[in-house]
Amino acid sequence: MLPIVLIISILSQGHATDYGTEFVTAFPENLAYYFPSALSLQLKITTFFPNTAVTIKMNDTIIHSLTLPSSQVSTVNIYNAEVNQLGICRNTIIVTSSQNITVFSISRRGDSVQTNVVPPTVNLGMKYLVPAFNYTDFAVKMNSYNMSGILSSSTNLLDFSSRLIIINARADVNNIAVTEKLPTGDKVTTITLGPFALIQLSSSAYWYKVTSSVEAAVILTNPCIDSVSCRCNMIAHQLRPTDLMGNEFIFPPFNETSYRLFVTSDESVDLSCNTVTKTVQPGSQDLLPYLPGLASTNPILKTSKPSSLSVISPGLIVNLIPTDKFSGCFLVHANSLAQPKALVIVETAQQNSLQIGNSVATGTSWEVISGTKYSWDFIPLPQSSVVIWHPTSPIAVYVFGGAGTDYGGPAISINSEPDPNGCVLVPLKFELSNITMSWQSSQSHCKNKGEVLASPNFNYTQNKLAAALNDLNMEGVAWLGLRRNLVTSEWNWSRSVPFDFANWDNNQPAGGLCVSIIIEPNGNFTWSTMRCCSPMLPLCSSEMVILTTFTENII
């Protein structure tokens, strides 16, 4: 007789996470190709599973081919990849892998640094809205420019417009339309890109929208935009597609004099904060001021329609994470030379359960975000790569470092749903056989499959298991991987996890040494002790893969 196979996704992904097996990206020009300082281009590639094969290609040529034996972070140096010319070229970086990985890009020239989470191709889209903000007034206030002198010597005000890099993410021809929202009306430019080709478009202050026939990646970039004290540094900002926009955001505790807000939407949208509402039109270039209430009262920002909300500061664009896209676990890469910190936002009632790696976060100084259920803290990062996660509450994590100016943004989302087991990478697979056998035979049956008897050691896992068993619409009794020690009478799980949770039926546990789960439609899926020789259905489970710590190497 064939077994009944039931797969339960414990991760229960509610939104896009940042791991995958295919990625495309590019390295925009940093300052200038002739700038008298060495250029460093790197990818941080994180593998989660043993013997993961990774291939990196550029211009149809394999530049790196790796097989990584364990869970680790590999820093890969990339050479001759900077995109410093306009037009179509083949400098697309293509990363493929045999198992799920994450990719993080770093561009450094002198103290001009930009980092980006590279989204997997499955998270790319065919419609992007471009945050083409008017940076002029902001730059003038930062640097006290003599505007009368500038106006008398030039017919054009200071130009802080940005270039666009568009990458065809597929091995197909990609028909692309780029819309500029000019004062005289919309201007649409059509482009055809061959497989994995990219194009860099010259600077424009009016970029509005990019649409494509197949998936594309879009990077907004300026090689040298004014920063504080008449400095300049690069911006390279990877856009997210419109289907990842949101309606509610929490403004982080940023200094009001150094930051502005920018709303991107393809419809007229109202942005509300406390009692203040601003209406933003599609294609608006206006940077919004630091709205009243962000510092002292309720910093919740709401939009009347799905939007992308960015925080703009000198040389930095940070996409705010919508509250419905907070995650259970983030991977953080940080440069130990840049005084890196993680900005963490978590529900106040759950703040003391925040985990970093294998331990509860210590040394935190949580500050309540007034008018919300959340608190925040800037947490110094003790090592270059670390996992920040929460067992029960979705969180937001941003990571920032400082060189000449600050850089950073949202951390790498690993799973969307909190899990008390940890930062779970692989959904549990449960297999329910319809052949009854003893507990010992059931344990051997599972072991022969490389599995163990199911061990729902948290209420969270029990609820997931119960919901999936309920979908079978059947009745029966199955073995769990829980057994009483005959000598000590202690309960032990087959998975060697602590026994901290039970879902006993009435008048249980009784005298039996082994434990079963009662399966019935709309039941409570309670547990009962049984004689270990009793015939029950084996309920097997694969082992969890949990992300905790890494080894690190440079390639």
Automatic annotation (TrEMBL):
Q: Where is the signal peptide?
A: 1-16
**Transmembrane portions of the chain:** none
Which keywords does the record carry? Signal
**Which classification does the entry list for the species?**
Eukaryota, Metazoa, Chordata, Craniata, Vertebrata
C-type lectin domain mapped to chain residues: 430-541
* InterPro entries referenced in this protein's UniProt entry, alphabetically: C-type_lectin-like (IPR001304), C-type_lectin-like/link_sf (IPR016186), CTDL_fold (IPR016187), IgGFc-bd_N (IPR035234)
Record organism: Tachysurus vachellii
**What's this protein's name?**
C-type lectin domain-containing protein
